[in-house]
Amino acid sequence: MLHQNHIHLSRRVGPQIHHSLLTSQQQQQYAQNHLKFPHVTIHKSTAQSGEDTITKNDDTEYQTTSEEETIFALSSGGGGASVGGGATAVAVIRMSGPCAFNALRELLSPSPNGLSGGGKLPKLPKARMASLRTLYDPLTNNDSERRDPLDSALILTFPGPNSFTGEDIVELHCHGSRAVVNGVLSALTHLNSVPIPAISDEESQQARRRRLSLRPADPGEFTQRAYAHGKLGLVEVEALSDLIVADTSLQRKQALKQFDGRLSRLYMGWREELIKGLAHAEAVIDFGDDEALDPDEEDDGDMDGDGGMSIWGGISPRITSLRQAMERHLADASRGELLRDGLRIAIVGRPNAGKSSLLNLLAGRDAAIVSSTPGTTRDVVEVILDLGGVRCTLLDTAGVREEKEEGVNEIEVEGMKRARIAAKDAHIVVGVVDSTDYERGLEAVDELINGDGDFDDWKKDNILYVVNKVDLKNEMKDNDCLSKSNSFGISCTTSEGVNDFLSVLTTEALSLVSSDNDEASSAALSSLEGSEGAVITRARHRRHVEAAADALGRFEVLSGQGYMALDMAAEELRLAASELGRITGAIDVEDVLDVLFADFCIGK
Ligand SMILES: Nc1nc2c(ncn2[C@@H]2O[C@H](COP(=O)(O)OP(=O)(O)OP(=O)(O)O)[C@@H](O)[C@H]2O)c(=O)[nH]1
Ligand SMILES: [Mg+2]
């Protein structure tokens, strides 16, 4: 049976295979130790196709990708509304998998019998060289002499394993109209079921179907295959996902920094250090401390709990400095995560202060209703802004005032409740005060911030006061109501003062996400070459680094207790190493993958 012992380079075992990173001997050991396939040998590719082969120990050969289905998708915009976007000049359709080149040959064939007609096989362009070719429609009525042209397209082929997915890839750069894109996608979908009169016997029909079996890709499936074939690590996959959805320049820069591998290098470097410590522990367990200590290793004079030399030798101080590096890495005020997720800026204040007017002015469009009736805004209105490269969600909220004031109804009360929640969840609060009703306006903002015990103290530093409608009261500029250092006189009607306020708001946003001045963090990272500027960008990474640092803290206590606690101390090192391995995908991360790839768009 051909597929009986086939290794599926699929989501299930994929994360643990990194061919490009391992020597063939390591790969073999990996397969035997981790993949539980002791009966196979992995050979690096020598074939022109470049596909690795796996030999079963009874010498039957399998191609690693032969059982993978070939997938295709529209990878760019274009194609019109029916496939999720407006028409563009060019649309890129990608195929990946063992049938990709055959499918391309079929599209290049003008004969109504396609490849099965016995005629000359259409030549594929040279690998990685663009070529302008006519694509023919295999769904053309069979009575015609020639298939109908589908498009004149630029074609590129990337033979595996030197491709994004590690498989054979074809890129069709077509014209971006709905008719062309739908025509090509439909041709690929039906390729294996196109009736070919030249083939009469069932067996040949089946063989043809196998050669041309394609299906539409799932979201993120190209990247998933790249990961399964060791082309990308987990942290790089996450970075790619961030890069695709980046809205601002700083988000793009952060994603690119992570994509170039510096964050992976940091975590892998730490993990290697821990594994060295573990090897030391194994040696002590097996041979006793005299033999375990490396004679070249400088003894730091560490004392164990019994007053003798530590059985951990030079390992203990290294682990301590590793834990400290992790703690510095963690003490970054979540800047990377904030930049990735974006900041929330809530505009609050009394009704009629001009909150919606300010939101509209900053957004450059009439996103919220403005009216002279107090209590106009009820629901929270959100607009996305790019402030100096920081993605910010600006939230306009209902005006807050005493519930017993005249005219307040239950809908407004609900609106005020939502305003309080928005302010509490925001990273920056902008309190808008009407200059003609300054005292009450300021009181309302202060009550919202100080009245609720839940309001984080740190956030009280991130409040900007905007005294609006200065056009109505010019003497306001000298009035003491602008005495707060973080307050600005503006007019939404004349735009006076708005630019000054915007530049301070931008500086404030940048200071929350910037790590440039963060000496602690850069000191933590510069110890590992090439990892400068690597910051935590996801809560998932933070959880694992925290757990690793905790384990190292416990190790430090246990390592001082001599032989008695040797096993337990080693276990903490193992735990810390596996937490770091979970970040990079070196250790099973099945649960993470499902969520991560579902976040990708189709075609990536
Ligand atoms: N003269 C003057 N009028 C302004 C200014 N800003 C806003 N207004 C007016 O003030 C009124 C209230 O403005 P909104 O932006 O709706 O106020 P709001 O704070 O959103 O009010 P609620 O949604 O009810 O809480 C409108 O009539 C605006 O035209 C300003 O700078 N100068
Ligand atoms: Mg409003």
Automatic annotation (TrEMBL):
Q: What keywords are assigned to this protein?
A: GTP-binding, Hydrolase, Nucleotide-binding, tRNA processing
- NCBIfam families, from UniProt? PRK05291.1-3, small_GTP
What's an example GO cellular component term for this entry? cytoplasm
Query: What taxonomic lineage is listed for the species of origin?
Result: Eukaryota, Sar, Stramenopiles, Ochrophyta, Bacillariophyta
Q: Member of which family? A: Belongs to the TRAFAC class TrmE-Era-EngA-EngB-Septin-like GTPase superfamily. TrmE GTPase family.
Q: What is this protein called?
A: tRNA modification GTPase, TrmE family
A GO biological process of this protein is:
tRNA methylation
What is the E.C. number?
Answer: 3.6.-.-
